[in-house]
Specification:
By secondary structure, the chain is an alpha+beta fold. It contains 3 helices and 5 strands. The longest helix has about 30 residues.
């Protein structure tokens, strides 16, 4: 009689966390790929909304679910104290914040981190279309461990 394989309950969360991190990274990679496609096609000089629409379209062409101007509610002790709009929410998992700026600043990173805390999402991609080479920053919050 062969021994039966038993699941180690301590390993299961790690496997799930690793799989979840892999899914998040895959979505993020597709967003970055799409951002480069948009930047290469449109170049520099458009308003943020143009890049948002183009990136949303490119992501949908890749088969991803995208919500433009995703509502973000900030709560304090159970009461909504602020409403914001995130540029893109991809697959209900990755927030994308777009900029058209000479350079990304600490305030842009803080904005992303605040959005992540408000939504409890794991990742925000901060993408700047303000230069000839698109700039991407990953801001993580409660990302699953590998």
């Amino acid at each position: 009689m062969e021994p039966q394989a038993t699941e180690n309950p301590e390993m299961k969360p790690q496997v799930n966390a690793s799989k979840r991190k892999s899914e998040i990274d895959e979505i993020a990679a597709k967003v970055v790929q799409a951002a480069y496609a948009v930047a290469n096609t449109l170049g520099v000089g458009f308003l943020e909304k143009v890049y948002e629409n183009a990136l949303a379209h490119e992501l949908r062409l890749l088969g991803l679910r995208v919500i433009q101007q995703a509502e973000i509610k900030v709560r304090y002790k159970g009461v909504v104290v602020g409403d914001y709009l995130g540029d893109l929410l991809v697959e209900d998992t990755v927030l994308v914040e777009l900029k058209v700026a000479r350079t990304l600043d600490d305030i842009h990173r803080a904005q992303c981190m605040n959005y992540l805390r408000a939504t409890d999402l794991p990742l925000c991609l901060l993408i700047n279309f303000g230069n000839p080479v698109v700039e991407v920053r990953r801001i993580a919050h409660k990302m699953p461990k590998e």
